[in-house]
Amino acid sequence: MRLRGFMRGLTRAAAALGAAAALGAVYMVVEAQAVRRVARHLPAPGVHPDLDGLVVVHLSDFHAGFRPSLNLRAMRRAVDLTLAERPDLIVITGDLAPGPRPSAEFRRQLSRLRAPLGVFAVLGNHDHGDSKAPFVRASDPADIEACGVRLLVNDVASVTRGAGDVQVCGVDDSGRGRDDLPTVRAKLDRRPGVLRLLLTHHAKVAMRAAPGEFAMAFAGDTHGGQICLPLPGRRIMLSDPGARFAEGEYEVAGRRLYVTRGVGTSLLPFRAFCRPEVVAFTVDAG
Q1: Residue 192 is part of a domain; what is its CATH number?
Q2: 227: which strand partners?
Q3: Is residue 81 helix, strand or coil?
Q4: How far apart (Å, rounded) are the C-alpha atoms in residues 98 and 275?
Q5: Residue 25 falls within a domain, yes or no?
Q6: CB atoms within 10 A of CB 130
Q7: In 86-232, which ranges are continuous DSSP H helix?
Q8: Which domain holds residue 98?
Q9: 156-168 burial string, b = 16+ CB within 10 Å, else e?
Q10: Is the pTM of this model over 0.85?
Q11: 104 near 141, Cβ under 8 Å?
């Protein structure tokens, strides 16, 4: 009788644990779709007054090449939130990752992104096919640009708003040394009043710029940890607990940097205590 009671208790405990695990998985799938809007100010004292109030939306890490993919649903939500901001400029910091044959839905959503000053992107490691995740394949840059996105591969682009000049600068993925920041720096428009922005998939690249060279550097890659443990006063990224630039805004010796959590997920379709995000920056020309 004691053994029978023990086995019944064990069975109930296993069932309870199974139910808790199932509920936890459902929660993490739901959180991965719950894209949030984040509003930030971008201080840029000294830039032309016509750039005051300029809205720059930062996106990253769609990871939209898996089929079927819940990331496409998150991407659609992110595009909706982006367009609701009525952005002047949209920047994407890598790992769009549609693979060699982008789905019609990926092309449709990426093509919806429009802004008066343009949509600019850099490539990440997944876009080059470099990943620990299985089934990742390199994307064709032409497929991305066919959707109206200008890729910056160690290059710069200049756009204007009124009499104000904006220079969008992008470096390629640094995972295998494809990035060439010196070439980008050599092309900078260093006249007073120019708003210079740097796009990079990996945040560490921004630390190789000179202090004050860019009003802001934008990066992705980390997903903010994707699955995190909440502790009093902080969260721990399970993917990389010791990451120097995990998520959010940093200022290091005159270098300003924002690392976004991004939109999609990698390897597992889960997020925990780390909602995906669309970040809208409003330029403050001082």
Answers
A1: 3.60.21.10
A2: 272
A3: helix
A4: 21
A5: no
A6: 14
A7: 104-112, 141-145, 181-186
A8: 34-284
A9: beebebeebbbbb
A10: yes
A11: no
